[in-house]
Fold Ig-like domain-containing protein.
Amino acid sequence: MLLLDFSSSEPEIRPYDSSAFNSTSIREQTNYTMNGNIHPIDPNILTNQRHDPLTVEVRTLSTDHTVGSTLELECRVRGMYTTINWFFNSDTPLVSDNRHYRILHNNTLIVYDLTTNDSGDYRC
């Protein structure tokens, strides 16, 4: 959901407001109509270039997903981003401990020595 505050002269858009929107507001005889997509960028980055929307694709690189095997998941990200985190069954990021979980510089997650407890939802 995108919330815009029209109480000031300009609406405030925050980085986490990335969204498609269609909104109309009438305030003090002034009609505001906006349509389109918002893809805010970090205000600390100065640029005049248009940025494409962020797309994320997770691919399985390993083929054997049995107990004791190693799982490799690749996170491909297109668009402007700063940090990639991996999540397993929650909103708490996985931590690379190099024993069970390892996150490589190319955003690939490796899960060593799979157990039945490793079954679930992996997101990046």
